[in-house]
Amino acid sequence: MLKTNSIEKQTPTAYPIYPLIEERWSPRVFSNKAISEQQVKTLLEAGRWAPSSSNQQPWRIIWGIKGTETYDRIFNCLHKFNKGWAGNAQVLWACAFKKDMQNGTKENFHALHDLGLFMGNVCMQATSMGIAVHQMAGIDFKAAQKEFNFPDNYHVATAAAFGYYGGNPHELDDELKKQELEKERSRNPQSEFAFNGNFQ
């Protein structure tokens, strides 16, 4: 585990879980350490081996390393709120999925789920490398679709910011800094989402 984290986060799990899952979290500040193209392709390779419905692999990723034109093009598609912090990330992705099956005759209702599985693999691989991932719904999907020439049967669903743990939270505005410095992560208890029987 290569993680060097200047902010300690506690994950109060009800049951023991795999350490990479317990240690992963989504900062809004990152260290200045660069991420190489080889490291980006390692992350993509981890995602590549995610399961998908009928092995359709509907995910499509546009990636850019800080200092490149592609990075700036992705950044320009982000919503204003995310532009306020994401510029300190070393890598940006725009994450899309193909909405129909390979032959184009019917909708792929599982494509968004499969993109999520792809990014789950990416997040675990990144955490093992000491790299943090912050995923964002705040991307102008219409602007991104046009900017990157996606056909109509693709949807740009999310963006993701990557950087090594260890950024300075005092670079953020007061509200985001408060969130960043919170010691304990939180999740809904299992009783609110998992039912051994009927939905409750």
CATH class descriptor name of the domain at 35-164: Alpha Beta
Give the neighbour order of strands across the main sheet. Answer: 1-2-4-3
Q: Helical residue percent?
A: 25-40%
**Intertermini distance:** 40 Å
Provide the CATH topology of the domain at 35-164: NADH Oxidase
**Rounded to an integer, what's the Rg over CA atoms?**
18 Å
SS content category: alpha+beta
Order of helices and strands: HHEHHEHEHEH
Q: Characterize the overall form.
A: globular
Q: Which band does the percent of strand residues land in?
A: 15-25%
Which spans of ≥5 residues are poorly predicted at pLDDT below 50? none
- The H-level CATH homologous superfamily of the domain at 35-164, spelled out, is NADH Oxidase
CATH architecture of the domain at 35-164: 3-Layer(aba) Sandwich
Count of DSSP strands: 4
Q: Overall pLDDT, averaged? A: 94
Main beta sheet strand tally, sense and closure? 4 strands, antiparallel
The tally of helices reads: 7
